[in-house]
Specification:
heterodimer; A: 6 helices; 70% helix; 0% strand; B: mainly alpha
Chain lengths: 84, 248
Amino acid sequence: MINERMRRLLDCLAAVNPEGDIDCATAARHFTSLCEQALNGADIHDILPQAAAHIAHCPDCQEEYEALLAVLRAEQSGETQIQP
Amino acid sequence: MGQMRRRMVRKGPERPCYTASMAILERAPTDRAGRSNEEWLRALTGAPEDQEAAIADLQARLRRGLVWYLTRERSDLGNRPLAELERMAEDYSQDALLRILKRLDSFRGESRFTTWATRIALRVAISDLRRARYRDFRLDDLTVEGELLPRHDPASAGDDPAPSPEGAAERQDVQERVLRALQDSLTPRQRQALEAVVLQNVPLEIVAQQMGSNRNALYKLLHDARRKLRARLEDQGLDVAYMLELFA
């Protein structure tokens, strides 16, 4: 348990970008276009590395980005048309 | 869910009250036909009959996406009956529609209109689910002045044993130095945020709300805290990669 907490802390330290980071609102402005491009097979790290880094390290933004990507993917495949 | 219960008030005749699943089946062909971004905007701001049809199509589309999200992506809602999840999707989609119609001017056309609208709908849903999940969470209950990383106790570390007595001693030494750095280099507010977000996985949105702050400011506070802590440890010769290996 203690080691798990240490690892979480160290993981978040390892992710520090010394050149600074963009905030949630700035990253979120790019979610829609990034998701559409990711859906077409693009690597978002190549498109907007700072937004991609923010998504990787901000749990709230990661949850929202991944939810959008998942729903768009389901729409594309027709899964959302199927009654649960 | 309180605020989600309100119903949207619109001009025009009242729609029949479909269940979410009925609406899913009935609206599907319209959405598959698709509208361009310009067509969506023109319809949503146009004549009442065009507006009515566009709103109905958009809400049905958002509701379908939300039903799929709540039923397929949210394992934490797995014990809820389908009817309840459909009601939640209905509420979220209505709340999202209100926001979308208010913010049409802010759509910049960088994606499909429906992608933009879906993002707003998911944000509504995810925020509400976070608030519900952390309803009883109190930031002040965290012992920020206590030990963020409790002292290593070999007797209680059975689930994660050190590889050797030397390894255990090395881990304990590093842990104590990290703890000192936490106390010395961070403010109580930074320690509190770090404990809640990083160590207890509480969403930033919830922590920010209880700090009387916002997500952006909290993210910056955490970024500064991480940067300061890392710099303090590196000053002491404690490289993060070395420590990660030690606690792997």
